[in-house]
Design goal:
The protein has 907 residues and is α+β, with helices and mostly antiparallel strands. Helices cover 14% and strands 36% of the residues. Strands 1, 2, 3, 4, 5, 6, 7, 8, 9, 10 and 11 form an eleven-stranded mixed beta sheet that branches. Strands 13, 15, 16, 18, 19 and 20 form a six-stranded mixed beta sheet that branches. Strands 22, 23, 24, 35, 36 and 37 form a six-stranded antiparallel beta sheet that branches. Strand 6, helix 7 and strand 7 form a beta-alpha-beta unit. Helix 2 runs antiparallel to helix 3 and helix 9 runs parallel beside helix 10. The longest helix has 16 residues. The radius of gyration is 28 Å and the shape is globular. It starts with a helix and ends in a 16-residue tail after the last strand. The relative contact order is 0.09. The N terminus and C terminus are likely disordered.
């Protein structure tokens, strides 16, 4: 008896349910399935005749056979399990927008099905000589039982052929016979992410070994070539060891255009009788907050996804690949805070991919950057997704400032008649940054009526971007309703009052401080202390008198698990690796006693104590610190349409430039927002300064991010309102000008890393206090940005002088630049000096202890790219250090001389 038939025999009800689900899925009636109970609007045609066909197909093939199905697959990373959703605000600005649910994996399957996804290929990371990480699909397969959703293997990393074959046999013998594991006839579907890491001979060894063990493979190969040009000749050598190909992202960086690469891959597949999976990819995120990589590469709003989808569809493929469902570090198509529009886009793509006629009413999606540097040419993209409405669709927009005044009108545009039509608006921003943020408002008019909505605000910031991700929202995502907000601070407690009156019940109202959530408005009695911590071995938090635990979360484990439990008095974790994070929401009086324990060491503290120590308390084997509320998605919903709610949370003292607002999540899946306020501002007078007016955006090609054939805009260059760089004088809101200070207290300069992206571009003032060592006759780096992003550098020259540099781009690359200015006299060894480097867009100036050392003209230029700033040039402390760094300050205001931080946009 084969594996799938054995499963069917042992679990007949599951097998029948799988057939029934397949019938209903072919019938395209998700409203008939309780598992698809979701606010997502996805209407499909009532084709009853498909029921009989689906039933016949289901009875003539095994439950796991997917060879006859049209399918949408998504890459899935199991280290971001859905029960971790609450912890994401501490790691990602753009975190998932869903609840974990009572059965998180089952909910994950439900969400994916509702958005038109048929299966996940789970990433499994090979380890030499040991078990493959994340190998076990059994919990996932169990979550999919009773549905026609499938979980398959995606092989990552490389070991040796026999080790990989042994692991595959072990995995497939464990769960390959499950009715929700994909089979192509009698072959087991396996996806290989690191396909080209293996030679053809190694793949023959792996396949032959698996076949002899009773597990023949249907191998789907990722043929991404990275920065190397795609070559059919290279692929020809592998034709005998694969059944299908796909490009994980197909970025077009190998010298050919994305479109040409897709068409070439489709042609090769057809010529060799292989399955071709076009890839839908939203662009590279970069994990800005999480510090994994600093470069965000969205590539024109929705166009990255759409161009790949439309070109790939030309070959009428059987399967489609989404990259990825939930990799928040790199890419994710799972709906999340700034990309709720995926809930409309993905079902529409899946529906269209299956060849079904468009359904539903007109839906328009909008895309734009969440942050941008002042003077950058703004781009707003609108995408009309296919619908049953064929009449004209007219879109008009307005940009409103912090006071609600219209400061720019976006002229009416009518979409072209074809499916997936797009339009864009390009708006110069130099005269608009007198307001720190603008609120886009759009009106969509069709034959059925008019819909207007305010979209999420976008912010002007300088000198660095902390959270520029692309906002992707549907006009149907948004609501407007009456609300008010007030915020105050006293004695370490941030207090806020929020009133709202909504036509539908509000699920959550979350207070934001700059880019980060503070906590939810809820029914708390005392002030809320939101904490995160880690440690080693046994770790615990005890809530003493005057405090109680509201909720707690641990990575990969739920309350009551063997190694994790919590109640109102205690949170306890066993076998806790140092990288694992725990979070808790605690109600506490100011003098409440809490006890933090890690590996036998303990510290008793009060909320006042943790505030006085800068927001964290350290032990030898762990630390506990204030964080954004990482229990947001587990808290009970408000469930009311109207009310006044008060929030009190322990927090560090607000900066004058801190922005606050509330995001409302309604129970029907729509969102609204309050007005953005600056309650602690004491200086609101705009600063008159020079800025760079430029058409260069994050989408503009630069160095390693260049994509042939891709432009930053849909509009021809001759029609751009700004076609070249120039320096202009304008008024800038003081809230735009971030100032951040890093304190090092005399740290030896052996390459400590700076926080990713807290690095200045454009106009800036860089100041630091530095004590040099004795000079050794060599040049030494004091501060280097790394990558190819523009920014400042400081060097100590062989003769003891200091050199200030402003540069960008990679060597020998078009557009690369470098400006340098050196001090007139050397620094004095072992004497603290104050260094200051200023770029005002017209000249680069260097000061030592307040005395101008020199200046050089700077021409208008802008380059975005990767940035990994480091201090010093030592390696693991083995080479002589440059000296001692005491502090480092960046400001977006070149005239900023104070050492006190007055405005910061990232907390």
């Amino acid at each position: 008896m084969t594996g799938s038939k054995k499963y069917a025999a042992e679990n007949g009800s599951c097998f029948v349910a799988s057939i029934l689900f397949n019938m209903l899925n072919q019938l395209n009636m998700p409203n008939m399935l309780n598992q698809l109970n979701t606010p997502i609007r996805l209407t499909r045609p009532n084709t009853l005749w498909l029921t009989g066909i689906a039933a016949l197909l289901a009875l003539t093939v095994s439950a796991a056979d997917v060879s006859g199905r049209k399918m949408v697959w998504a890459h899935y990373v199991p280290w971001f399990t859905p029960d971790l959703v609450s912890q994401m605000p501490d790691r990602y600005y753009d975190f998932p927008q869903h609840d974990a649910g009572a059965d998180p994996l089952r909910e994950e399957v439900r969400r994916a099905i509702a958005l038109g996804v048929d299966g996940f290929f789970n990433d499994m990371v090979a380890h030499a000589g040991s078990t493959t990480a994340f190998w076990d699909l059994r919990p996932f397969l169990k979550a999919a039982e009773g549905t026609d959703f499938h979980f398959g293997i995606c092989l990552d990393v490389k070991t040796d052929a026999m080790q990989q074959a042994k692991e595959l046999v072990r995995m497939l013998s464990t769960y390959g016979g499950h009715p929700n594991y994909p089979r192509w006839g009698e072959k087991y579907v396996v996806n290989a992410y690191t396909f080209f890491a293996w030679t053809p001979d190694e793949w023959h060894t792996i396949r032959d070994t698996c076949s002899k063990a009773g597990f023949p493979l249907h191998l789907i190969a990722n043929v991404e070539t990275g920065f190397s040009r795609h070559s059919d000749k290279k692929l020809d050598a592998y034709a005998g060891v694969l059944e299908g190909i796909y490009h994980f992202s197909i970025m077009g960086m190998g010298g050919g255009s994305v479109v040409s690469d897709i068409r070439s891959a489709a042609a090769w597949s057809a010529a060799h009788g292989k399955l071709f999976l076009p890839c839908v990819w939203p662009g590279y995120y970069g994990a800005w907050l999480n510090g994994r990589n600093s470069f965000y590469q969205p590539i024109r709003g929705f166009d990255t996804m759409l161009d790949r989808y439309l070109t790939g569809r030309e070959s009428h493929p059987q399967w489609l690949h989404l990259t990825t469902w939930n990799d928040h570090d790199e890419t994710t198509l799972q709906p999340h805070r700034l990309a709720t529009g995926f809930r409309s886009l993905l079902p529409a793509m899946s529906h269209s991919f299956r060849g079904l006629p468009p359904v539903g009413e007109t839906d328009v999606l909008f895309a734009y950057f969440r942050e941008t540097l002042p003077g950058t040419l703004l781009r707003f993209e609108a995408l009309r997704i296919p619908s049953a409405e064929k009449g004209p669709c007219r879109v008009t927009g307005w940009l409103r400032d912090a006071f609600g005044t219209v400061v720019a009108e976006l002229p009416a545009k009518v979409f072209p008649p074809e499916e997936w039509a797009r339009v864009e608006w390009l708006v110069p921003s130099a005269s608009l940054c007198v307001s720190d943020h603008l609120v886009p408002t759009f009106e969509v008019k069709t034959e059925r009526g008019t819909r207007r909505a305010e979209l999420p605000p976008f912010f002007f910031v300088s000198p660095y971007l902390a959270n520029p991700e692309t906002v992707r929202v549907s006009i149907r995502d948004r609501r407007n309703f009456t609300n008010t907000l007030s915020v105050a601070y006293a004695n370490g407690i941030l207090s806020s009052t929020c009133f709202f009156s909504s036509p539908v019940a509000v699920k959550r109202a979350i207070l934001y401080r700059n880019e980060r959530p503070v906590t939810c408005f809820a029914h708390d009695t005392n002030a809320v202390l939101t904490l995160a911590w880690n440690g080693q071995h046994e770790v615990s938090l005890l809530a003493g008198r005057g405090s109680r635990v509201n909720y707690a979360v641990k990575s990969f484990e739920r309350n009551g698990a063997r190694d994790f439990s919590w109640n109102a008095q205690e949170v306890r974790s066993f076998r806790t690796p140092g990288w694992m994070r725990l979070t808790a929401r605690v109600e506490a009086l100011p003098d409440a006693e809490l006890t933090f324990r890690s590996a036998g060491e303990e510290r008793i503290f009060t909320p006042r104590d943790i505030l006085e120590t800068g927001g964290e308390i350290k032990l030898k084997s762990g630390r506990i610190y204030l964080s954004p509320d990482c229990t947001l998605r587990d808290l009970p919903p408000l469930g009311t349409r109207e009310g006044t709610f008060r929030l009190r949370a322990y927090a560090r003292e607000p900066d004058a430039g801190d922005a606050f607002w509330v995001e409302f999540e309604c129970e029907d899946g729509t969102f609204a927002k309050s007005r953005v306020i600056h309650p602690f501002a004491h200086d609101t007078i705009p600063v008159e300064m020079d800025i760079l007016e430029t058409p260069v955006t994050l989408d503009t090609q630069s160095c390693a991010s260049g994509v042939p054939g891709e432009s930053a805009f849909l509009t021809p260059q001759k029609e751009w309102p700004i076609s070249s760089n120039r320096v202009v004088r304008t008024r800038v809101s003081p809230f735009v000008l971030r100032t951040v200070r890093e304190s090092f207290e005399g740290t030896p300069m052996n390459r400590p890393k700076l926080p990713v992206r807290r690095y200045p571009m454009g106009p800036f003032a860089l100041t630091c206090a530095f004590t040099p060592n004795s000079f050794d006759g060599n040049d030494h780096d004091l501060l280097t940005p790394g990558g190819w992003n523009e920014g400042p550098s400081l060097r100590i020259l062989a003769d003891g002088r200091v050199e200030g540099i402003f540069s960008g781009g990679a060597k020998n690359q078009t557009g690369a630049f470098r400006y340098a200015v050196a001090s007139k006299v050397p620094l004095r060894p072992h004497v603290k000096s104050r260094l200051r480097l200023v770029n005002d867009c017209r000249s680069l100036r260097l000061y030592v202890d307040g005395i101008l050392q020199g200046e050089t003209p700077v021409f208008p230029v802008r380059i975005y790219g990767n940035c990994s700033p480091t201090l010093g040039d030592g390696v693991n402390g083995e080479t002589p250090t440059v000296g001692l760094l005491h502090d480092l300050l960046f400001s977006g205001n070149p005239l900023f001389f104070s050492d006190k931080t007055t405005s910061s946009g990232s907390h």
